[in-house]
Design goal:
Layout: E1 2-3, H1 5-11, H2 15-25, E2 29-36, E3 39-45, H3 48-55, E4 69-71, E5 77-79, H4 80-83, E6 84-85, E7 96-98, E8 101-103, H5 116-132, H6 147-159, H7 164-168, H8 171-187, H9 191-196, H10 199-220, H11 231-260, H12 289-320, H13 326-358
Antiparallel strand pairs: 1-6, 2-3, 4-5, 7-8
Length: 369
C-alpha cells in the first residue's frame, strides 16, 4: 500500500491514519494497553464486520483492502483505493543491519541428539557448498552467532584458538602456570612442582572418560537430556587443575618431612633396611629418598582416599539427580568426579615413581654437640 501524499493532504489525513484504518479492517490495530491485576491487557481496535468474519472462521480477502472505508475529518467516507495505490508483492517486514550492512538472520535449532559443535560444522559445510555453486554471492559475509558464537568465544578463552600464541594466553595454560609457580615458591624447587603436575593429565583422562560415560547414558536413556561439552563442563577441567594437585602435594610434602626427619609419624620397620636388605639403625632420623617415598604413601594413603571418595560422593547428585535444570551441572559433576577419582588412584602410583626417578637424594648433615 503506497499512500498518495496529495490525496491524503486534501482529505486531511496522515499516512498513520490510513495505516490505522487498514489495520482495524484486518486483524485489528493495537491502540493502547491497560493494567489489570498486574497483567497488561491490549486494547485492539477492529472493524465489526471483520470481527464477525473472524469469529465465524472466515478470512478477509486481500483484494478487499482497496474497498476498506476511511472516515475523513469532514464527516465523509473514502476508500483506501482512493487514497493509496494497492500492489501485490513481497517485502520484508523489517530490514536489519549489522555493521551498516543489510543482514538476514536464520535461526536454527539442532535436534536433541546433535551437539552444538556438530550443528555449527554442518552449517558451515552447507554455506561453503552454497558459495561454490553460486547460490550465495561472493560479497555476502556469513557469521555464526547466538549460543554457538558464545561457545566458540568461551572455548577460545579456555583452550586457545588452535595456535601456539592462543594456547599460551588461554585460561588453561595460565592456570597451570600459576599453579606451578605457586608450588615452586612454596617448595623452593622447580622439580617438585613438576612432579606434582603429573597428576593433572591423569585428571583430564578421568574427566573425559566420565563425560563419555554420561554421554552414552544420555543416548541410551530417553528420559535424560543429551550431554555435550558445554561451558560449565569446560570450566570443570580448569577447576580440576587446582583440586587434583592436593593429593600429590600431600605425598611430596610428607616425603620431604621423612627426608628431614621431621615427620610426625614413626617409620615402619621396612624403612630401616638398606638396599641390600640388611637392617640399619636410624632412630627416627632422616630417611633415604626411596624409603621416605614409601613411608609417605603408607602414612598418607588413608586421608587421600577418604577426602577423594567423600568428594566424589558429594558430586554424584550433580550427575544423577533428575529435575529441571539438572542438565546444566551434570557435565561439571561428571568431569570433576571422574577426574578426581582417576587422578587419586593413579597419583598414588605415578607420583611416587616420577619422584623416585627425577628427584635427587637430599644430603642431611647432622651436627652433634
Amino acid at each position: 500500500m503506497k499512500p498518495d501524499a496529495r490525496r491524503l493532504s486534501d482529505a486531511g489525513l496522515s499516512p498513520a491514519d490510513l495505516t490505522l484504518a487498514v489495520a482495524a479492517a484486518g486483524d485489528g490495530a493495537l491502540i493502547d494497553e491497560y493494567k489489570a491485576g498486574g497483567d497488561a491487557i491490549d486494547l485492539v481496535l477492529i472493524d465489526r464486520e471483520t470481527a464477525e468474519a473472524i469469529n465465524a472462521g472466515t478470512s478477509i480477502d486481500v483484494d478487499q483492502v482497496s474497498d476498506v472505508p476511511v472516515a475523513l475529518p469532514s464527516g465523509r467516507l473514502a476508500t483506501v483505493g482512493q487514497l493509496a495505490m494497492i500492489e501485490r508483492g513481497a517485502a520484508a517486514t523489517q530490514i536489519n543491519h549489522v555493521d551498516r550492512q543489510r543482514s538476514v538472520r536464520l535461526q536454527i535449532t539442532p535436534p536433541p541428539t546433535m551437539s552444538l559443535e556438530e550443528a555449527v560444522e554442518a552449517i558451515k559445510t552447507e554455506l561453503e557448498a552454497a558459495r561454490k555453486d553460486g547460490s550465495i554471492p561472493p560479497g555476502v559475509v556469513s557469521e555464526v552467532a547466538g549460543t554457538a558464537s558464545a561457545l566458540a568465544a568461551v572455548r577460545a578463552e579456555l583452550v586457545g584458538d588452535g595456535t601456539s600464541i592462543g594456547f599460551l594466553t588461554s585460561t588453561v595454560f595460565l592456570a597451570l602456570l600459576v599453579c606451578y609457580l605457586v608450588m615452586a615458591v612454596l617448595f623452593q624447587s622447580f622439580m617438585l612442582p613438576f612432579v606434582i603436575m603429573f597428576s593433572v593429565p591423569l585428571a583430564a583422562v578421568g574427566g573425559f572418560a566420565a563425560l563419555f560415560a554420561v554421554v552414552i547414558i544420555s543416548i541410551t536413556s530417553p528420559t535424560l537430556p543429551m550431554q555435550s561439552l558445554d561451558v560449565l563442563t569446560m570450566l570443570g577441567f580448569v577447576i580440576l587443575i587446582g583440586v587434583v594437585v592436593n593429593n600429590a602435594i600431600l605425598l611430596v610434602h610428607q616425603t620431604l618431612n621423612f627426608q628431614r626427619g621431621t615427620a610426625d609419624e614413626t617409620p615402619s620397620d621396612a624403612s630401616f633396611r638398606g638396599l641390600s636388605g640388611a637392617p640399619t639403625v636410624h632412630l627416627g632420623g632422616p630417611l633415604p629418598l626411596r624409603a621416605a617415598i614409601a613411608e609417605s604413601v603408607r602414612t598418607r594413603i588413608r586421608p587421600i582416599l577418604m577426602s577423594a571418595f567423600t568428594s566424589v560422593a558429594g558430586l554424584l547428585p550433580l550427575v544423577f539427580a533428575p529435575g529441571a535444570g539438572s542438565e546444566l551441572y551434570r557435565g561439571l559433576g561428571a568431569v570433576m568426579g571422574g577426574g578426581l577419582l582417576v587422578s587419586t588412584i593413579f597419583t598414588i602410583v605415578v607420583v611416587p615413581l616420577v619422584m623416585a626417578l627425577l628427584v635427587r637424594e637430599r644430603k642431611v648433615v647432622a651436627h652433634a654437640t
